[in-house]
Structure formats: structure tokens, C-alpha cells
Amino acid sequence: MKANRFLFIIANFILCIGNIASQILWPLSPQNQQHSVVGNIGEYRNTNRFHLGTDVSGTGSVYAINSGIVTGFSNIGTRNSTVWVDGYAYIHVIPTTSIKIGSPVVAGQTILGTIYSNHVHIQRNDFNFLNHGLCPYADQNTPVINYVEFREDGANLYRATALLNETSSINGIEYTKVYNKVDIIADVYDPGDNNSFTSPITILYSIFDSYGNRIDDWFNNFDFRNIPENSRATNCFYIGTQQAGVFIYILTSHPTSGNADRYLNTCLNKRKAPQNSWPKNQSLDASCNFESYYPDGLYSIKVIIFDADFDNFSNNNLSDSETYPIIIDNFHPYISNVKIKESGAFNYKYERGWFWINNKMLLSPLPASKILDQNADVIIEIMTSEPMKKVTLQVSNHPKLEIDCGIDLNKTLWTFTLSHNYLTPGQQELKISGEDLAGNQILSNPSVVHIRQSYSNWQPPLPSGPSLPDTWHSFMFGNADVDFDAAQTGMHYNHIEFTDKSKITGNYKWEFGNPENSIATTKDAEFTYTNLGTYSVKHWVNQKSVSKHVTVNQITTPVCSFEYAPGFGGQKSNSTSVLVDFYSTSTGVIGSYSWDFGNGHTSTEKSPQNIELSLYTWHTVTLSITNAAGTDVLSQDIYLDPNEFPYASIFPWELDYFVYDFEVLASNFKPEEPIYFCIDFGDGTSEEKIEYNDSYVFNHQYFEFGEFLIVATVTGIDNNGKEKTVSTAKQVTVEPEYFTVQIEHIAQNDPVYPLQAITFNALVEPSSNYFGNWAIYKKGDPTFYYSENFMNSNSTMEFCFPEKGIYKIVVDVYASGFAANGHAETEIEIVNAPDYQNVEVFGRDIVCKNSHCTYEALLQPIGEPGVPDSKWWPTNIRWTLQKPDGSTQIICDEFEYWESQFYQHQTLSFETEGTYLLRVETWNNQHDYEVNNLLSPQYINTISFYDLVEKPITVTQNLAAIELISPTTAFPENVSASGDEDITLKFTNPGSIPIRWEVVQSQGLICNDCITIPQPASGQNLNQGNIVNMTIDVQPNTLENSRYSVITISGFDAANNHVQGSPAFIQIGQNGTEGPGRQIVEGTSPDHLFGFSVSIDGLVAVIGAPVEASSNTGYAFIYQKNEYGEWVKTCTLMPSEDDKYFGKSVDIYSDYAIVTGDGSDYIYIYKKPVTGWAGLLTELKRIELPSNEGNNVTIWDDYAAVGLPKNDGKGTVHLYFRNKGGTDNWGLIKSFEGNNDDDFFGHSVDLYNKILGVGAPQEGWETGYINVYDRNLNSSSSWSLIQILEPPLTSDDENMRFGQKVSVFDKAIATSYFRTYWSFQGHVSYLQFPIFAKIGGPDYSLIGEAKWWIHNNEPFENYISSIAAFKSIWNSPPTEYNFSSIVGAEKLTNNMGAVGFCNFDNTNIQQQWLLEFQWEVDNIAHYEGEKWGNSVSMSYNTQITGIPGYSRTLGKRGAVNFQRISNFKSNKDAEIDLELTNFSKPSGVYSTVNARNLTLGGNNLPAVIAQNASIQYEGEEIQMGNGFLADVGAIFVAKSLPNQLNVNDSRTNLTNYPNEYQTIEKQQVLQKLIPQFPWQLYNPLNEISLLDSLDKEINSLKTMIPFPNNAKFIKLEKEAETKILLINIKQQ
């Protein structure tokens, strides 16, 4: 099967390559007939050259194929006899005697000569005749990929060992192993006539990852529409098979460039060598897998070829493609990181790994020792450096564990669980082994990096012998709650001080392990042993204990020594003193220190710092150290002279917190003499070096945390010619500079309610010893505060919140023994739980025998006002029916109708006379009240989240009823809208009382003429058991906006009352039309560019029509979709003064439209009249602008913005507020400016809700950027900058124009930019289409990026002229990918223009959601100059494309294409949510605001419906947050709409629309405002009314609540729904 998707990509890639030459006749007779082609350019010839022309088989006369003059002859009399006509060569031709140099030649008429042998060779520089116009020509033979193979770099020098044919079988697929630099060799050809072969016209390849995602662009090194240089032939053909007619190419070479060979350099350093400029430079090879451009793992190479007929896909599109799995194998795997923790714990107690630092692989320091609890299992997470087949773990006596990768061929994280039952207390060593996908074993010592050179050759060579496991990691297993430290102080013989380090407190006990079994019961203890030796000391806290060995050493007199380091260079030039650091390097157990600096200053510190001593003066410094065995004293004379006396300095340069460069500087030594440097790193290691230089840098890695004293000694010849040795010291602390801290919590419920215990834990990295404190604050309550400290890395806190509210949780972490710290915050909301669940059952008390009856259950969580009761909705229901014989039947024990969680129903069958008992139970199971999926009996009627109701039902035969036999459902599914199928209607009377019956078609918003009911349609005396049987004829439905027909079956008793089951309804689904799928509306004036700009808001659009050339004024038009689905013009917007630029930029939202244009001095704002958009309308407000170049506008709700990209050189954006300076005054509230000159800041602006996006595409070699502003960031209407977006892919490209067009929708921002590079004899640009979105955080991040390739001619530019982001209409990706965009490119293809789509799609191999781009495939021809896509806009229902150059009807100019994309009728249908805060609606009438879920107010930001303001909000759910206020006298309507099913059907099937008869859920908003009143709704499809009438509800409401006298109520009634809407309640 052909790879059509790749064909599409390549087609677009080549779409803009230069014009095709005119058609050419054949050189042989008959000239208008195709001849056999036996050779073409790109074939190898034995003389190390490409074949440079086209060979046409035949004999006889040769006709000229080009007009001109004869310019020469060559090789006359030989087989290669040639005639030249203006650059065209005719070879193997014996010229006629009638032509001479200078003779005129006419194409198709002049005979140049006769064929020498059996073919004529025609040639022209940079011209392929098969691809450029020999006509007629059709190549019906598909090109062939014979094979593809991989060889070592330089495989054109043929040798058998160069072939890479070693494979690794993984999950049944054979992967070829490749490494280092690889040549891709392809044997490809195009079968021609007479069994001849020619070269394919183009050969491409690319590399894909294991998920099937393309990593690199398509390499098109072989494109034989142009003739290669012969000098490159030996680089392009595979030597060893070079002979005429062989087509074996080295795809990784390049036939048309002399020195830019591209190699599949699998270990290329990705940080130093960009992929688009891969050279042979060996120095750019990666030194480790981390640096490699293609890290070790699974990939695939795809090769695709096109035949000689390939020419921009205008012909037969024949191609072939093959995919070859490969495994890149440059490096041996290693264990890059290990984490260890207790099962169920948050924090890891051990973490250590290898890091690539300073071109070395270094192991991080050993973490501080932490004991893992011996009563818990152990979790070990192992990270490998590359994907592995398997990893094996052996820990002490624990059984060996092994994990296989299975189908996860990218697995690098391996999690093992060790059972504590197999482990004994003590140190546990880890032995880790494994095998990567290529069969390599892990390295036991990753500090040595081995790079593969050939099958068995690694540099440096691999260690000999069997492979050894990784043994770098271990942990301590034992009692983790109890711990202690022991220290010998030295001031007393055999004296040890013990310090408790336990995590728990309680009763303490010490056993010191001496023969006398001495004990202590204090928290800390001291003990003096009688004898030297090692003792087993045991420490208890409560009933838990730990044992350690403590050694009592012999105390001898200590040995005193010290170093000093003067701070030369830190003092002022005229200073007479210097600060000196002193370090004790004494040995032995030392009890005290005493320093005397000879100037009256003393110290008792071990290493005093910053001691001020005078320069050019001798100082006698004395250190005295003491312990129980005695005292040692050392005095040293010090002379401080930075200019003459030799001295040494140490400069520690931290590379990472555990890796240092120590620079030792020798001052006042002769540099021409050798200098001996020696350094002690303080960790038991040292290093020395002899240099003819006055400095040397030692690199050192520490493997433990702590303080280390570095001592450097320098020996050399001083300025007086004498050998001198000096030393100095410097202390460094190896510790992480900061902790990364995260807060996690575990709670019984979500949301959490008061007095429930919540466990908080701080996740701290890197693993170390730390302490810290927790703090809890309550928002809005400054008196609430709670604090708790923790020690010994035990960062768990348990807390019960006392009451509802929003709380801030803060944790601060500090390292034990060094300066690292960390901080984290989080918020949690505590809500009150609902009081109880409530269930009510509605249905008949008396039922006819042998009938069915439907019963309804209304389930409600009842709580206090403001409680988010949606979190406590009923989750379980059980229907139980007890029959007259005492047996019990469980009808249902789960929700069946999730469209309404509060409303459930069951249809029951009654076959026996007697009394039945119906029982309905409901509860909320988020709180573990179930046992084995059943409610535990102990909770029935005792818990607050359970309720039941029982209803007796009497069944008798002495009734009458209507019982439907067919159809069995009220909504038959087997009826087609076209009328192909009919309905068989059967019903009976199961009761003993006769009834009168009738069948009628219901009237209303339905198809009233789509069914025919046969006669008779009524009857008398339908007796028990009699059946009415009729066929309902279903007719085609062609009506607008009708979806179904409804049949009503009624039965009446003698008193003319409905009997049981009457009326019964049968709904026949029949989708009507939705209006035309496409509608092109043309402009009416040849002087106006109708469609230059467009904007749509729901089912209302504004179209801009600026003046093209004359001095008349421009216009803008309002179009609306009528009841027939057609777009009609209803209003013309005009400026109060002529403005020819008026209409170049437009936008519309709700009741307001805004218009301006590039060149206009003003922006114009229009308001919809109360009577609607109609007639001629002049502006509500005209605002003068400081600049008139590039102006563009946007509007959303109460805010409007104008971009002025050329104002003040940088660009400016002005922001206006509707009520600034008065209602509808639209006053300026803020201005923003670009960063630099020529930023073109404001080139594109877009508002959506609270977000403003501003594009600044910049010029020259800058990339462009987008500023994102948030209205509510810090305060009301702050409009603060929250983020700057930049291109995801950057390069040194001119005019990338990122942000040239910007579109904001919901949480997404869409834009475009482009990149370019040299190829195909010119520039090839990538048009990039990124979408950024807020996913789970405050920042916008890249969620997808599509691209399209285009071949540019100068000037280079971003072709995209318009863009519109929206919710995905075409499919239903996950929430984080539920965005799409459309783009317009009016300059494409000589201003023909086109529209493209970016949409997330998961049809790739691994079914990942990736952003894909494609041009719209249109069945309407586009013509040059029409500029399709000059502007685009999109709503939930319609896509608009502006076509300002459209001119197909005399006297008209411009058009707009309205394209229906769904049958959605509103934002709610399209599942669009709105969170509206920070707004005020003054007096006036406003359009309805519609969304799926609406939130009004919140975050303490205002949301005000003022007095005399009238507005309606509608959606499935409407929430009112803090800050919301509906003032007295306001008409505020909150309308809850039904939750429709199968919304996706409106995307995929435009004729399938959800039914409108659906049960209405309770009105949640009003329930929260007034919980005392049972807000129940009427269901028109059911025979039972929940309340008798709407008026009864209103009257009941009035009696319960003391409304003000002027309180108003509105009753909205519509087929399928009835609502009460409370109007002017002022929320307190």
C-alpha cells in the first residue's frame, strides 16, 4: 500500500518549485507520439560519471525539439557525433549537409540528421526532459526499491566487511545494528520500455523513532530533475557494482554539493553539531550516549522514490517506499540513577547516580546514611542510560528479581519491590545487571565510556572476562525509628558521649555493653568505660531498639600542626594589614584548641577565620591542643609580604556541588624554574604535579557530603634563587546548594471536609539529612495559624482542619550540617459535607395486571448553602421489588442513566394480582461504606450518606390500560430519515374494562408531514387482549431544523380520562437538513475587497470590505444564519466619515463589533441595537489613533485592543474598557510597548476572556515573540504580562516572523513562523504551526507543532496571513489536546491562496496525539489572484474564509466562503466552558451568554449584574463564585440546559442530532442560593408531574422566602423543558 501520507508531505514540499517548462515534441517521428526511453539522467556510466541526458530509442531522422540556431558540431564521424542548437545537444546524430553553424532551426520542423545507431541522446544543462515536458509522455511503470542496506562510512571504497548485516530480533522484528557513521545504500530503478531501466527522478529518506514519529526532515539528496556534477559521481554510486545500467546509490552522499556530505552520524554530538549541517568532522562525535544526536535505541529508516513521470503530482504519482528497522548501538548501557525508599513512603532515603560533568562521567556523592524500616518492603527504582531488554537485581539473600521490557521498547525506568521477609538487618549491597536492546551488558564502571567502532571493536576496549554487575549502591536495613550518635571527646580517658537521633520519643534506655551491663534512662547519655575496645551499645525508645558498635580508642598526646592562608588580593592597595585564615591540621583525639596570634588576639576555635595581621611584620602564631593525655604546642613565625616572599593560594571553582577545579597559584617564584605542586584534598586522597608555570588546576570529585580541608604545598625557586616550600589551605563544603521540595497529601475524601485527618509529606531531593517546619494559614482569617517542626528527615505531618475554608500549607526544609534549604507551598479547600442523601419515588399506586409501568426516582444530596454538593452526588442505587408471594427481585443495582445522575427510572412488569413493595436505596460510595460491592448493613439508616424509600403497589385486573407491543422502545433505531423503513405499531388493553383509543401525530417543532397514519386511526371498545396493528408510513424529511416525528397513542375510559399508560409516545428520529454545507457569498461592488477581513461569533459574522483603489469609503457587513441554515446580510456598518481603509480589520463578540484597517486613523466600535443587527448603522464610538500603519483590532466582552505595529518604531498596543469614562465610552486603560526597534509589536492582537495575546514578529535575523497578558493576574483589570512565548525551534534564519498572526482560544494560543535552509538549488522553508496551552499549570507550554514545507523565492517570508484557534471539531482528543487551528495563506501559488488545518490526530503507529497539518482539499477551483485565506475565522458551527480577490461575476468583487463544519447550535453543544470574572454589566439589555459550564465570579474578583441590567446565562451547569452580585432591580436569568447525549455525533455525522426530549436535571444554581426550596422540574414525556404546575412552584416559593415587593420572576417554557428563573436577588 502506498504511503499516501508521505506523498502528501512531499507534494506540498515541492509545490512551489519553479515553473514547468513548456511542452516539447519528441525528436523522432511521429513527433506527437511517445517513444521508448532507454536512458535518463542520474544513471551511472563506466567512466565515473552521471548520464547527463535522455536516450530515445529509434532510427531515422532526428527533429529539433527547440527553436534557435545551430551553434556547433563535435565528434563528427564518430559514434558520439553531436549537433548543438542553443545549448541543446543532440548526440549520436549524423548531421544533414543542409545545416551549418548559424543555420536557423524550428522546433518540430527542422531535421538535424539521422541516428547513428539505435538511439538519440538529447541533453540540456539542468534539464530533465522526462520531467520537464516531452509530450506526450506517461510512465505507467512503478519505480522499484530492490534493496536497501547499511554500510560503514566510506563504503564507496568497496569491501565486504563494510556491510552492516548483524541483526537483533525484538518482538519478532529483525533490527539491523548500526553505529558511528553509516552510509545508506539503495538499489533503486524505474522500469521503462523494452525492459530498460532508468533512474528514479528523486530519492528521499528520513529517520523515525520507535513510536513512528519522524525525527528528521526528509533528505532529498538525489533529485534528478537537475543534472548532477560528474565530479560527484564516485561519491554517489556504490563502488564495487559500478557499471552502466546499475542504479545503486549512496543516499547519505550528495550529488549536487561538493563538500557538504550528510552522514547518518549516529553518535553525533547534538549540542555541537546541528542536524542540518552534519559534517565529517571527527571532533564533533559524541563522547557519551547523553550527547548523541540519536541516543542508543530503536529507530527506522524510510526510503521513498518517485519515477520519471513525477512532476508536482500532476501526473500518475507512481512511487515506492520501504521502511527498515534499525537499532543504533554506539555505547554500552549503564545504571544512571538508583532511588530507594520504603514501600508506601513518600520520600526516598537513598538516591545516587552518574552525571556527565566537564566531559567526564562522575558518580554523585554517597547520600547521608538512612536506615530503611525492617518492617516494610523496599522499593528500588533503577534508571538505565538507554532502553533495555531486561534488568536483573540481586540484593543480599533476597531471591533474584528480573524485569523484562515486554512491549515497552523505550523502557528506562525499572521498579523493583523487595520483600522485607527475605532481608536481614544490616548493610544490603545491590548487584544490578542487564542487557540492552542490542544485546550489550551493562557497564560495571560507567566512568569509562566505551564507543563502538565495529562489530567487535570498542574504544577503549571492553574489559576482558565475564560481564560484571553494577555494585555501586547499597542501603541500611533495620529499625528506622531509633538511632543515635557516639563521640569520644578526648578530655577524659575512655569517655563517650551518646546523642539520641530517634524519630520517636518516649521512654529511653541505654545498654553500654560493658561487662557490668551498665544502663542509663535519659534521652542522651555519657559513659566512661574501664577498658579500651569495641562495645555493642543498644538504645531503646519505648519498645524499639537499635544496636551499634562503639570503639573506645587509646588517647595519646595529640600532635599539633596548622596551615594559614593570607587573603592577598582582597585588601586595598594602600592597606597595611591582611585577613588570614588559620586551619588546624592536628592529629589525634583533641579536646580543646587555644590560638595566640602574637598581636594580643586569641581564639579557641578549631580553625579561626579572618584574623587581621599586619603586613611586612613578623608574627609568632602559637597553637596549643589538649586532651586527657597531655598538651602539644606549635609556634610558627610568619612574615606577610605579597610582593617579595613566596606564598601559595588556592582557588576552588565549583563545577557541581561535588566536583571542583582547585587552582593552586604560586606567587613570587621564578616561572622559568620547575615548580612542584602537591595537594591534599582532605578526603584521604592527594595529587602532585611538576609544571613550568606558576599555577596548576587539579580536578577532584568528592564521594561524600561534609567539610574538607584542602592543603596545597608548593616548592620552587624564589626570586633570590633559593629553594622555598610554602603551603596554604582552604576549606570547602560538599553539599547541595538547595533542595527541591514538593508537597503531597493523602485524604480519606476528595474534597476534604472538616475534622478528617489529612497526611502531608514533603518530597525532598536530593536525599540528605534535613529538618524543618510546617505552617498552615487560612485565607481570609488572619487569626488562624498552626506550626509544627520536624527533625531527622521525618517530614510527615497529620492535621485535621477545624472548619471549611481555603488553607495554605507551607513547608521549609533545612539541611542538617550545611546551608542548603528548600521551600514549597500548596493550597487545599475544606468543604462541609452534605447532611444526607434524599430519594423520592414517583409512579402509580394501582396498576393493571399484565402491564408495564415506569417509576421514577429523584435523588438529591442536601447540604448547607455553598457546599460543592456535586462532589457528594449519589453514586449507588438499588431497586428491589418484593412480589405478592413474598419473593424479592433485585431489579437494578447500578446507575443506568448517567445523563441525569439525579433522575433514574425503571419500567417494571406486573403479571400477578396482589400487593407489591418497591424499594429504592441510594448512597454515596466515596467514603468506603461498601463491602463486596454491597452496602454494609451496619450503615443502613445510620449514616448521613444513605437513604431509602418504599412504595406499595396494588395490581388488579379490574382496570384499563394501554400496553405497547411494538415497537418495544419509545425511540426506534431502525428508521431512516429517507423514509426507507416504516414502523409497525401494535398495542393492546390488558385490563378487563374496554377503552376508546386513537393514534395521532403530535404537533410542534417536529416534522409534521413526515409520517402517514393509516385509517382508521381511532376506535371504540378495545377489549381485554385485543390488539391494534397498523403500519406507519415514514416519509423523507427535507424540512429545516426538524429532527423527528412523534406519534401519540391514547386510551380513554368511559369518563374520557386517560387510562394507565396513556398517552404513550413513539419518537421517530429523522434528521432534517441543516442548510447548505457550503455557501459562497459574493461582494456587490467592484471597488471593494469584500472578505478582506472576517470574524464570527456563534451564528453572527462581520465581513470587512475596504476600498481597493478609489477614494470611497469602505464597509463592513453583519451576516446571520437564518432558520433555513443560510447566511444572509442583515446590517451594514458604515463610518461617520469616509474611510477607504475601513474594513481591513474587523472583530465581533456578543453585542459589539469593532472595525479599523491598515492606513486608517481611527477605530470604530458598533453596538447591536435592541431590535438586533439590522439596516444601516454608524459607529457608537470613534477613537483616534496615533499611528495608521498595520492597525488591527480585537474585542471580547468589555475589552477591546488595537495593535499599532509601527508606532514609535517598536510597536504599541492600546487597550480599551467599555465603561471607562462612562457606560459604553470605551476609554483607554492601558498601553503596551515592544522591546526593541523593528519589533512590530502589535502586528497581531487577539483577546479571549481574560487573556490578551500580542504578536511581535520582528524583522531581520530576530525570531519574533508573543507577549501574553492576564487581566486578573494580580488584581482586578491588572492586565499583567504573564509569559513571553518564543519559537520552539530556533535557527539563524531571517524573518522567521514568529507571532505574525496570533489567535487565542480558551487555554490555547496558536501562531506560525518559518525556518529556511539551502537545498534543491534554493531555499526550502518550513512553515511551523505551534499550539501552546495551559495544561495543569499557570504557564503556556508547547503541546504540539505541525509543519509544512515550501520552496521559496526571494524575498523570503511567512506565507500565513491569518489564523484562528478553536476547539477540535473533527475528532475528540484528550482535554490537553482538544485544540485546533485553521490558517489562511493568501499569497500561496501566485496569490491563489489556500486554507490549511492543524488538528491533533492519533492515527500514527503508536496512536499518540500529534499535531498534523494539511491543506484543505477543495472541490471548487481556485484561481490566481483570488487570495483564498486572506482572512479566516471559526466558530462551533461554521468556518469563514475571506476571498477578497474573487471576481467571477460581472460587477462584483470579493467573496466569503461559509463552510458548515458541525451541527452544533451553541457553545454548549460544542462543550465550550467559560469562567467569567472581573466584569460589571451596567443598565441595559445584553445578549445571552451560552456555554457548557459557566462560572460567574470567583477568586474575590467582581462579577456584577447592576440595577436595570438584563442578561441571561445558560449552560448545563452554572456556578456562582465569590464576588458575584445580582443587584436589586437586575433581571438576571440563569438557565440550566439539558445535558445532551452523543455530542460527538454532531462532529462525525452532520445528520445525527441528539434528541431534544430529555429529562431536565434540577437547577443547581438556585438550589445553592435557596436550599430550603425543592427546585424540581417538569418532565413532559412522563405521565407523572413532579409538581402540579409551574405556578404552584412560584407561589410556594413566595410563601417561603420574604422577597422584596418588586421581585420579578420569569417563566421560560419551551418544548422539552420548563424553567423557573429567579431575577433580582442580591447575594449577600
Secondary structure layout:
Blueprint: H1 4-14, E1 37-39, E2 44-45, E3 49-50, E4 54-57, E5 61-63, E6 68-74, E7 82-85, E8 88-91, E9 93-95, E10 104-105, E11 111-115, E12 119-123, H2 129-132, E13 144-152, E14 167-170, E15 173-178, E16 181-191, E17 197-198, E18 202-209, E19 219-223, H3 233-236, E20 248-250, E21 264-265, E22 297-306, E23 319-328, E24 335-342, E25 350-357, E26 360-363, E27 371-373, E28 378-384, E29 388-395, E30 401-404, E31 413-418, E32 426-436, E33 451-452, E34 458-459, E35 474-478, E36 484-488, E37 495-500, E38 508-511, E39 519-520, E40 525-528, E41 533-541, E42 544-552, E43 562-566, E44 577-584, E45 592-596, E46 602-603, E47 611-614, E48 618-627, E49 630-639, E50 647-656, E51 659-667, E52 675-680, E53 686-691, E54 695-701, E55 706-717, E56 723-734, E57 740-746, E58 757-765, E59 770-778, E60 781-790, E61 796-800, E62 805-815, E63 821-830, E64 836-842, E65 846-848, E66 851-862, E67 876-882, E68 888-892, E69 903-910, E70 914-923, E71 930-931, E72 934-935, E73 946-956, E74 963-966, E75 983-988, E76 995-1001, E77 1011-1012, ...
Parallel strand pairs: 15-23, 27-35, 65-73, 86-90, 112-116, 113-117, 114-118, 115-118, 116-119, 117-120, 118-121
Antiparallel strand pairs: 1-4, 2-3, 4-12, 5-11, 6-7, 6-10, 7-8, 8-12, 9-11, 13-16, 14-15, 16-17, 16-20, 16-21, 18-19, 18-22, 22-23, 24-25, 24-28, 25-26, 28-31, 29-30, 29-32, 32-35, 33-34, 36-37, 37-40, 38-39, 38-41, 41-42, 43-44, 44-47, 45-46, 45-48, 48-49, 50-51, 51-54, 52-53, 52-55, 55-56, ...
